[in-house]
Amino acid sequence: MHWRVLQLSQGQRCSAICLKDGQIIAASSNHGPQLGKILFDKGLVSLKELQEVLDMTKESGKHLGATLLAMGYIEEEPLKEVIHQQVTDIVKNLMFWEKGDFLYRDSSVEFEERSVENISIMGVMLDA
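User: That's the sequence. What structure does it adopt?
Assistant: Structure tokens below.
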């Protein structure tokens, strides 16, 4: 599936925001907490479960969230809530960058569509 992707970089820090119909549907970053750490810190998965799923994702190439759901280690709603908060936090953090480089393009991005939830850009801006 094709989406619009805004890639931003500032030195070694890189982030990407995935957009569909003008709404944020996903974001990633190489700085800040990763999904597995957030889920563990919130007590939603155990360290043993997380390590098992991380090993499986390396072998299968599937995303962490999809694998956690398939293994029954987490329910869909709590996962969606954590992903929503993670995406919102990534976008909010970007609003405080004073400089950086960007690239805006159409891209084919693979991710679990059922975890996608439109995030209001205006809502994030007002919250920040």
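The longest strand covers residues 2-10.
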